[in-house]
Amino acid sequence: MEHTFFLKGFKCFTGETFTLGNLTVLTGSNGTGKSSMIQALLLVRLAIEKNVLINSSSDYLESDWRGTPTPLNLGYELSLGTITDIFNDNENEGSNIILKLDNEVYEISLSDENGKTTSVNISLTASSIDVENLPFWRRKEFYYLFTERLGPRLFLASNYTNFPHCGHRGEYTAQVLLNNDFFKVDVRRHFTDSKSEYLPQQVDLWLDYICPGTTVRSEALGTMGAQIKLRNSSTKNPVLATNIGFGISYSLPIIVNGLIAKQNSVFIIENPEAHLHPKGQSNMGFFLGKIASSGVKIIIETHSEHIINGIRRALLLPKGLKSDAVRLYFFHGDKAGKTNVMPIKIEKNGDLSDFPVDFFDQVRQDLFDILRASNRK
To answer: Which residue has the higher pLDDT, 229 or 54?
Structure first.
């Protein structure tokens, strides 16, 4: 199911609409708005959670909207500064930030009195939700991984969460693995031709696919924490995660969240390619494409052409995600500093509808410059 997300007046956005498919990919130059789009979405979600809390309710469809102050620098790793920092400089004075998800409209106003505050009152000015088909931002299960995840650690603390997830930095990954030995993974997310349906085996199969030769296990450390141990092709016995490397620690929470995520929920991942070899990046893209085809809405921010190529491979699976369920957006700035967002379609055969300048064409540009310089010599 598709949703639309409209942003006006938030940071670089003066009126941009995104269609969110089963899998949405944000890519492009640095500082052009990819993270800002995700931050706006997280800010709305944080406001919903605050409203649930203030109403002492567990209902994420809470109709009594109290507009409780929502912090700009706390929750979902947000570090947005003050209310002035999130308003677009080009908007007319007195204009509100408008964040619209389908028929739900959220507004943030700026006055002289609140210009330096670090929290905002978010008003819900319009709402119409199909209770039978809850949108992802109104579901209890909401999965997010920040770009700065935890690297290898000797100890990962346990904590209560109101649904199983790996945390925003992967800090609860060991806890999830420790407590879910008999969790049955949706068959549509199983590694190719595997017969095991349980989480530990599926995690090992996908981890080996992305980081070859690697398997994982979680061991309890007292009652308040756990430890990740890994085995790869160079080690006979499991060793501490701190002795193997960052790529595995960064990838593991993506795999675990992807395998346990509830149907019709959302999983937002920033830079899934971090610390991975190009082949691992492509295989990670393939994994995320397969998770999206099983009914989890995936939103990715990436700088990797290999992630995109892995997704393109996943689209060609016999029962894979349909190409029209994927939305790919290329962010780029113009000479005036304005953000432009260009949708690029992935065709049924995996081809891309457009290939604009600076859209993963750096190899071609570099080879051209090398050849020209070589000819001058």
So the answer is: 229
